[in-house]
Amino acid sequence: MKVVATSRTEQGSGASRRLRRAGQVPGIVYGGNSQAAAIAIEHNPLWHALQKEKFHSSILDLEIDGKAEKAVLRDYQMHPYKQQILHMDFQRVDPNQKVHMPVPLHYSGHLESPAVKLYAGQVTFVANQVEVECLPADLPEFIAVDCSTLDITKRSIHVTDLQLPAGVSIPNHGQDDLSLVTVKIKNAAAKAGGDE
């Protein structure tokens, strides 16, 4: 996805307010071998881009004053009650260095799983994204999670159960194998004696 920006020299809260009144969003791009750069982006196209899942988890083509570079969205601030973006933070990426990015999880198959169809199980999705580590070119738009295997004896899906694309890994950060999906089955012990 492409983001068109212009560099800005005026900084501070007064300059930011003037930018917002003019329909622009102040932002910053940092990282890489270059200095942090203050930028301004047109609000409305940026607002529509933020509504797309892909914008939050993909390598963006950030064009500043006609010069393109690769970057990822790192943070943004919204107005407390208006539909207004207050500030954007982007980080430059090096195509040869791995990035850590949150990637959305797309669940499917739970309604067809034995846990739901045969035992009227109640499925709970514990996470809607997972952090991955990979080179920018390998960054997936999303990770598919097949829940059709949920059953009386298999009542959860963990991070280690994910089928990851080539070149993509999930950093551990010292955590246990986190559950992504769980299913609760009433009287499951009486029906099959399965454990969670």
UniProtKB/TrEMBL annotation:
The keyword Ribonucleoprotein applies. Residues 98-184 form the Large ribosomal subunit protein bL25 beta domain. It holds the Pfam family Ribosomal_L25p. One of its GO terms (cellular component) is ribosome. Residues 5-90 form the Large ribosomal subunit protein bL25 L25 domain. Keywords: Ribonucleoprotein, Ribosomal protein, RNA-binding, rRNA-binding. Gene3D superfamilies: Ribosomal protein L25, beta domain, Ribosomal Protein L25, Chain P. This is one of the proteins that binds to the 5S RNA in the ribosome where it forms part of the central protuberance. Belongs to the bacterial ribosomal protein bL25 family. CTC subfamily. Part of the 50S ribosomal subunit; part of the 5S rRNA/L5/L18/L25 subcomplex. Contacts the 5S rRNA. Binds to the 5S rRNA independently of L5 and L18. HAMAP family: Ribosomal_bL25, Ribosomal_bL25_CTC. PANTHER family: RIBOSOMAL PROTEIN L25/GLN-TRNA SYNTHETASE, ANTI-CODON-BINDING DOMAIN-CONTAINING PROTEIN (PTHR33284), RIBOSOMAL PROTEIN L25_GLN-TRNA SYNTHETASE, ANTI-CODON-BINDING DOMAIN-CONTAINING PROTEIN (PTHR33284:SF1). This is Large ribosomal subunit protein bL25. It comes from Limnobacter humi. The gene is rplY.
